[in-house]
Amino acid sequence: MSSETGSHGTGSDENVPEDENEKLPGEREPQGHGEVGVPDEDPFADPGLPPHEHRVQDIDERAAKRSERTVAMLFTVSMLATVGFIASYVAFPIDKIVYIWPLGHVSALNLSLGLTLGLALFCIGAGAVHWARTLMSDVEIADERHPIEAEPEVRQKVLADFRQGAKESQLGRRKLVRHTMFGALTLVPLSGVVLLRDLGPLPEDKMRHTAWKKGKLLINENTDEPLKPDDIVVGSLAFAKPEGLDQHDHDFNVEIAKAALMLVRIEPDDIKDKRTLDWSHEGILAYSKICTHVGCPVSLYEQQTHHVLCPCHQSTFDLSDGARVLFGPAGHPLPQLKISVNKDGYLEAQGDFAEPVGPAFWERG
């Protein structure tokens, strides 16, 4: 029917191009960045991955073995450097100075520690890089980005990729690399452990012993004279230090902080803990002056009750009852020192304190 031609007047299709790329009359040319008629290119188009090129280690097992030995050598050098670091810490005194050109005069300890630790860390890094570049798979894999929340399929894929990566790393196959790498990674943390020496010398058993020994006289802290029993009267409190400990000694403060002693004289009938009488002389009891809480000097004495008070945190000890704790945060009684009188009539120690003095510590019994 002629009416199907529409309202444009004619049913002829002479103006309709046969090719979709052919322009209609009056149609304008597309505008591009360059010449007229050249279509725009997508600047974000995926260029794709270049063809994969095999490395020599992928096709030649002998080359792969050489790379394996190189990696193992680097890890082994790292282990030796770590051993050298520890040996340097032991061998070189901290005050040893050497001349190294062009550095000049430097500390032998610092120089050796820096060189050995630096070499140990460098060899671990170099070994890992060489291992990755020559032995691990270098096939590039493109993966589309996905939402942060992982779907079960994605998690399964990640685990599969991990297993595939572990397989391609050849960690199970290259046993020499695996063993030497584990050795290097195991040894290098020892460097940090050795550095703990800078915190100070090891205490060993110094916390359990003081300057008191059998036969040492009790010296009055105020007069620097040896004490006799008559110098200590009932109701009084005296302070003493070991014979031979001079306040001008460079380690005086360290030693007196452990060996400070207080003496009290109590009527034997007033002593509750009769076991302390075996360590006393005519009612003269010798106890550590160092509080067992935080180490403050105990010095406030109440002669009627025989209680002694620490001024720092008010720990109270009963000197007539083995210096046990009556009140306060102290956790142990004051240690007792066994004393006697020598042939010249002076008070002397019969050994060290019965237990470690001062604050409780983790090894204390």
From TrEMBL:
Residues 1-54 are annotated as: Disordered. It comes from the Bacteria. It holds the Pfam family Rieske. It is found in: Cell membrane. Its main location: membrane. Keywords: 2Fe-2S, Cell membrane, Disulfide bond, Electron transport, Iron, Iron-sulfur, Membrane, Metal-binding, Oxidoreductase, Respiratory chain, Transmembrane, Transmembrane helix, Transport. Residues 22-32 have a biased composition (Basic and acidic residues). One of its GO terms (molecular function) is metal ion binding. The chain crosses the membrane at residues 71-92, 112-132. Residues 258-348 form the Rieske domain. Residues 1-13 have a biased composition (Polar residues). GO terms for cellular component: plasma membrane. The keyword Lyase does not apply. It is a multi-pass membrane protein. Iron-sulfur subunit of the cytochrome bc1 complex, an essential component of the respiratory electron transport chain required for ATP synthesis. The bc1 complex catalyzes the oxidation of menaquinol and the reduction of cytochrome c in the respiratory chain. The bc1 complex operates through a Q-cycle mechanism that couples electron transfer to generation of the proton gradient that drives ATP synthesis. The cytochrome bc1 complex is composed of a cytochrome b (QcrB), the Rieske iron-sulfur protein (QcrA) and a diheme cytochrome c (QcrC) subunit. Belongs to the Rieske iron-sulfur protein family. This is Cytochrome bc1 complex Rieske iron-sulfur subunit. It comes from Streptomyces armeniacus.
